[in-house]
Amino acid sequence: MQPACSIALGVIVIICSCNVLSDAKVRASLQGETAPRTPGAVYRCLGCSPNCGRCLATVRTIITEALNESQNPADASTCCKAVNVLP
């Protein structure tokens, strides 16, 4: 399964319109050993909270992809890391 990494394509995708969160912001929040591991923790880390909930499945998918990349460093090249995080 290929990660859904829009950053690799040079595209920033807003995944949460309620909080205007991009996939890049969510991915950036998942860097490091003490990074959030649940959608709720991601929202808290980014200083907001889920509203309508339509983005929760997407946030979960991004978390799963990030965890898989961290467990399989050889496969991490399939998706770039957020360097300059916009919206």
Structure description:
The structure is a single chain. This protein has three helices and two strands, in the order ββααα. It is mainly α. The protein has one domain. A two-stranded antiparallel sheet has the order 1-2. It is globular. The C terminus is likely disordered.
Question: Any key phrases for this structure?
Answer:
about 90 residues, mainly alpha, two-stranded antiparallel sheet, 3 helices, about 5% strand
Short overview:
By secondary structure, the protein is mostly helical. 34% of the residues lie in helices and 6% in strands.
SSE topology sketch:
Layout: E1 14-16, E2 21-22, H1 23-29, H2 39-45, H3 56-71
Antiparallel strand pairs: 1-2
Radius of gyration, Cα only, in angstroms?
Answer: 12 Å
In percent, how much strand structure appears in the residues? 5-15%
Number of domains: 1
Kindly name the structural category.
Answer: mainly alpha
Poorly predicted ranges (pLDDT <50, ≥5 residues)?
Answer: 75-87
Q: Strand arrangement, largest sheet?
A: 1-2
